[in-house]
């Protein structure tokens, strides 16, 4: 139910922006277009800040950090790789983005800015933690504002039939297959205390840490809730780094690695690194994975394997 409510809020925000855009003045639209690129860095600061807050509220975080990092890293890489291979086999012409010195130089600048934003967020989180200040931060409303602005920009974007192609479905499909394959590898790398169905379930959050952490705590245990939370937080950060490093070159693969976050947090990076043309791809992939994530987590946790 929670996933349906959150997805509904996202579509209300983007629809509102899309239908309001024609009624806005040209100067106001231009101002919004100038503001949008900076939103991605604000979101990065908020993600890093929430990570430090999450670590501060988890008992013995050092015991759950290694499995969370391993699962996050492997699922992100496998999703990226499976998507790349799939498109090379089915639609080779759509695999790669444009190559130019300017794009490469801009990618390097964006990576540097991304690391700076992450550093600022972590620093702010550490300052708050060490100051013992009671501060609650929820980036969800910030995301809704950003989605609203994306809707305004989409209203000025020309659509084409390629956005409705069945090939777009390969992006979330690759994310699912890559995550499952990574889980099989992780099952042999992680301590024997982890069962295969638990590792599979931990890979199905697709970066949606606010959902997976709560769901695992309710269905399994607080410890696994913490692992799920950190796994998807790290998965979101890995996706952001992949987006900035390789999104301009392999846009669909980068979107696949972003999982459910391609519909909200990393949508800013999709627009910035892959181009506005890939925003509908990201929205569709993020929507499908957001709907599937809680169902798949529940399914795998109930399997006896």
TrEMBL record:
Q: Which PANTHER family match?
A: LYSINE EXPORTER LYSO
This chain's protein is named: Lysine exporter LysO family protein
Which keywords does this chain's UniProt record carry? Membrane, Transmembrane, Transmembrane helix
Organism domain of life: Bacteria
Q: Name one Pfam family in it.
A: Lys_export
Show the InterPro entries listed in the entry: LysO (IPR005642)
Q: Does the keyword Transmembrane apply?
A: yes
What parts of the sequence cross the membrane? 6-24, 31-49, 69-90, 111-128, 140-156, 168-190, 282-303
Gene Ontology MF term list: L-lysine efflux transmembrane transporter activity
């Amino acid at each position: 139910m929670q996933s349906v409510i959150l997805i509904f809020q996202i579509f209300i925000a983007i629809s509102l922006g899309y239908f309001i855009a024609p009624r806005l003045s040209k100067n106001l639209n231009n101002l919004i277009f100038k503001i949008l690129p900076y939103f991605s860095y604000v979101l990065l600061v908020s993600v890093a800040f929430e990570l430090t807050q999450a670590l501060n509220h988890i008992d013995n975080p050092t015991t759950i950090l290694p499995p969370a990092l391993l699962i996050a890293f492997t699922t992100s890489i496998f999703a990226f790789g499976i998507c790349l291979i799939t498109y090379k086999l089915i639609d080779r012409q759509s695999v790669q983005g444009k190559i130019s010195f300017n794009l490469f130089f801009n990618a390097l600048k964006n990576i540097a800015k991304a690391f700076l934003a992450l550093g600022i967020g972590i620093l702010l989180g550490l300052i708050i933690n060490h100051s013992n200040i009671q501060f609650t931060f929820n980036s969800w409303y910030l995301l809704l504002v950003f989605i609203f602005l994306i809707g305004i920009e989409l209203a000025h974007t020309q659509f084409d039939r390629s956005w409705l192609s069945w090939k777009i479905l390969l992006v979330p499909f690759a994310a699912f297959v890559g995550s499952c394959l990574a889980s099989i590898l992780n099952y042999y790398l992680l301590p024997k205390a982890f069962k295969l169905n638990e590792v599979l379930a931990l890979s199905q959050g697709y970066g949606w840490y606010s959902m997976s952490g709560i769901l695992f705590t309710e269905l399994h245990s607080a410890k696994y809730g913490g692992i799920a939370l950190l796994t998807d937080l790290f998965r979101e950060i890995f996706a952001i780094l992949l987006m900035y490093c390789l999104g301009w070159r392999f846009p669909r693969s980068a979107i696949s690695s972003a999982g459910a976050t391609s519909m909200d947090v990393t949508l800013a990076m999709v627009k910035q690194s892959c181009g506005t043309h890939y925003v509908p791809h990201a929205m569709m992939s993020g929507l499908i994975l957001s709907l599937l994530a809680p169902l798949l987590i529940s399914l795998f946790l109930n399997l006896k394997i």
